[in-house]
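Deliverable D5.2: sample structural annotation.
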Amino acid sequence: MHNIIKILYKISSKYAPSRNLSFGIVHIFKTLQLANSYGHISRSLLCKELDLGEGSIKTLIKHLKMHEMIVTNNSGTILTQKGKYILFELLSLIPAETFIPESSITLAKYNYSVRLKDSANLIGFGLEQRDEAIKLGAKGATTLLFSKGKFIIPGTDYDALNSEKVIRHILIQKLQPKDNDVIIIGSDDNNEIMAELASKSAALFTIRSHNDHKNF
C-alpha cells in the first residue's frame, strides 16, 4: 500500500513552475471512484462532484493522464488498467461508505462515514483524523472503533451509539464493519461533498501515517 499512496502524492504534486494545486490525494481517490462507477466521466461532472473549478479539474485530468491512470476520448475520461488497479487496492482498505443523518455523535449538518478495514491499531484518540478533516476545510471528523458489535470512542470503552439506534442500524447495514475496523465520519455545516471528502481524506491520512511509521 505504501507504493499506492506514494503514487497518489506524485500525482497531486505540482510541476515547476506551476502554481500550487487546489486538489489533493482525496480528490484523486474520488475521481477514480467516479470513473469506475460511471464508466466514463466529464469535466462538468468532476467539477460538480469534487467541488473544484474548471481550471483545477483540467490540471487534475492532466496529472492523471501523465501517470497513465486515465485516458480521454469523445465520451469523456475512462480508467486505464493501472487506474483500476490503484482504485481496487485503495478499496481493499476503504471498502464501504455512506451518508448518515445528523446525530449526537456527528459534528455538523452534513455527515459522511467510511469504513477503514482492520485499522484500529492505527488510531490514537482520533484527534489526527479530526485535524486532517479540518485542514481540508470541513468542520471536523469523528472516529469510532468497531469491537464486538459496539462503536467505541478511541481511548475508552464507551459505546458511542448506545442511544443512537438509527445511526447504528445505518452503519451496520451500509458499512458491514468487522472487529478491528475503524469508522470515520466527516462533518461539514455547508456542504455534503466536503463531508465526504473529509472522511476519505482522514482515512487516507491514517493509511499514509501507518506507512510512514513503518518506513515501507
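Annotation notes: Helices lie at 2-11, 25-38, 43-50, 54-66, 81-91, 127-136, 165-175, 192-214. Strands lie at 70-73, 76-79, 96-100, 110-116, 140-147, 150-152, 182-188.
The annotation will be released with the project's public dataset once the embargo ends.
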